[in-house]
Amino acid sequence: MIEFHLDSRSGVSAYLQLVQQVRRALRLGLLDEGDQLPTVKDVARQLAINPNTVLKAYRDLERDGLVAPRPGVGTFVTRTLTDNTLAAHGPLRTDLQRWLSKARRAGLDDESIEALFMTTFRAASEEDIA
Amino acid sequence: MTTALRTHELGKRYGRSRHWALKDCTLELPAGRVVGLVGPNGAGKSTLLGLAAGMLVPTAGRIEVLDEGPSSGAEHQARVGYVSQDAPTYRGMSVADHLRIGSHLNPRWDDALVRDRIDRLGIDLRRRTGSLSGGQRAQIALTMAIGKRPELLILDEPVAALDPLARREFMQDLMEAVAEQDLTVVLSSHLVSDLERACDYVVVLVDSEVRVAGDLDDLLASHRRMTGARRPSDAGPAGHHVVTASHTDRQSTLIVRTGGPAVDPSWDVTPLGLEDLVLAYLRGDASYERPRPTVEVIR
């Protein structure tokens, strides 16, 4: 069983935080196929949040084929998200470090680097959606 | 039943007072939701809740609670739970006495549920409620209201007098009850932070009038803060409804209700949290539905 936490200052909606925490637990292997998620009632109580928020998160995970409800029993994991991209992390990090030194040589400070990265990242994600 | 509370041009004046504690209140609150009623002190929140609970008689307009008039007999009263602002209990009587009264007066009283809750709260049934802490008394009042198994639970500033821990415990208990029962909750607060996680529907009441009401997610999705170079007027981009506007010599900041995707790239557009959204309506002179002729400065 996992336990949820909410960060009220993150700007991310509560329901999305729940979704992200389940996905992360699936990726890290904290949750396995057949494992049960905390019941809606338990999460509502523990976090003092609206049960509909929890339902919304669980429905989202269900739509992605990660969990399935068993009526009267609870919600269970149906698929894991074990990460098979780990092997690629090393080379990507080296590339990124190279890019970072290049950016510094060009005179960018931390803030400009972060802003440049975030705007490029957002623009790229928006293109993906479009 | 899909509507828990419906009002039409509802108004209330107390005694011979000329002052409307609530006026022209037209609202429709969906059933099965947790509705947060927000507004500054004196906005009319308690009056609206008192009318909904059948404790007050309207001076003008109509009100329907659970598809009936508010005071249509004891059977109807059994469907509505109401806890007023000071979480009243009979201070000289024990918790057990309260439960006895509750079970006698309420046809649908759930004694097992009530005892289980009080057990978990760790409150001795023999104690007089006058000797309990404010938080414990609020919990007893909530437990009594939930114990009658209402369809609509009305809570007037339930956590205002509680410390942060008691506040949290109260909201935990309330959310658990919502998960367990088929229940519509209307609770008021002058603090948005009390409501942010608990509510999925929000009503902002200012100066006896409803400024905005709607599904929380819809409201958050349809409101944006726009900042950009100083504009000559308060008018926003076409199709956007300006809630508030402020200007410096260089910059204009607007809180808008969007009528679609923002098209003008000269504005920097960011989402709003519930607190900022509510504050905009508390400050702003524009209502959700129609423009207001007067500007009121509140707090």
Overall description:
The complex is a heterodimer of chains A (130) and B (299). Chain A has two domains: 64 residues, Orthogonal Bundle (Arc Repressor Mutant, subunit A), CATH 1.10.10; 44 residues, no CATH class. Chain A is 58% helix and 8% strand. Chain A is built from five helices and three strands. In chain A, helix 2 packs across helix 3. Chain A is elongated. Chain A starts with 13 loop residues before the first helix and ends with a helix. Chain B folds into two domains: 204 residues, Rossmann fold, CATH 3.40.50.300; 66 residues, no CATH class. Chain B has a six-stranded mixed beta sheet with strand order 5-6-7-3-8-9, with helices on both faces. A four-stranded antiparallel beta sheet of chain B has the order 11-12-10-13. Chain B has a three-stranded antiparallel beta sheet with strand order 2-1-4, with helices on one face. By secondary structure, chain B is of the alpha/beta class. In chain B, 29% of the residues lie in helices and 28% in strands. In chain B, helix 4 packs antiparallel against helix 5 and helix 5 runs parallel beside helix 6. In chain B, strand 8 and strand 9 form a beta hairpin. The interface between A and B is medium-sized, with 17 and 21 residues.
